[in-house]
Amino acid sequence: MITDALAQSHRYLNLSPRFAAAFAFLQQLSPTQPDGRCEIDGDNCFALVQTYQSKPLAQAKFEAHRQYTDIQFIQTGRESILWAPLATLMQVTEPYVAERDIAFFANPPQWTPINLQAGDFTILFPEDGHAPGVELGFSSTVRKVVIKVRA
After folding, report:
1. How far is 8 from 10, CA to CA, in rounded Å?
2. How far apart are CA 27 and CA 33, in angstroms?
3. What is the DSSP string of 37-59?
4. Rounded CA gap, 108 and 28, in Å?
5. Is there a contact between 51 and 141 (Cβ–Cβ < 8 Å)?
6. In this structure, what DSSP letter does residue 126 have?
7. What does residue 140 show for φ and ψ, rounded to 5 degrees?
8. Domains present along the chain, CATH in parentheses
9. CA 141 to CA 53: how far, in whole Å?
10. What confidence score (pLDDT) does residue 24 get?
């Protein structure tokens, strides 16, 4: 897991050959981009633009992926993403679905909050369990872009 400001994204370009295209997309993203999927490099790298209300901690739901690394970028609003190593997520609540590249887990006894506001991103690798969209102090309308980068 990595967290930083988009202005510092150049530091992470060598982590994946697809990160340059992903961060270039975020750098030029229009605030009027409609919600939905945006193609970057087919199924190797694509963006999911979303707008939603952050939710209370009690509604946090841990998830993990196998095929993709997430770059989660907050364009507007603020939220907390709860993070825990995948190895600590012991109870599967919804088994892995390959077509959606996702499995869900019961919340672990310990996690680390990743607090993000407009301009911040986090990189979540397949070994990073995470529960996104949690209120950071109060409910917020969040405009987030999740870039899925094939691992």
Report:
1. 5
2. 13
3. EEESBTBTEEEEEEEEE-B-GGG
4. 37
5. yes
6. T
7. -140, 145
8. 2-150 (2.60.120.370)
9. 4
10. 97
Measured between alpha carbons, how far is 47 from 147 in angstroms, rounded to an integer? 4
Give per-residue pLDDT as tens, 48-98. Answer: 999 999 999 999 999 999 999 999 999 999 999 999 999 999 999 999 999
pLDDT tens per residue, range 97-115: 999 999 999 999 999 999 9
Q: Which pTM value belongs to this model?
A: 0.96
Distance CA 57, CA 81 (A): 10
Q: Give CA separation, 84 vs 3, 61, 111, 112, 113, in Å.
A: 14, 12, 5, 6, 9
Token pair, residue 24, equals 């270039």
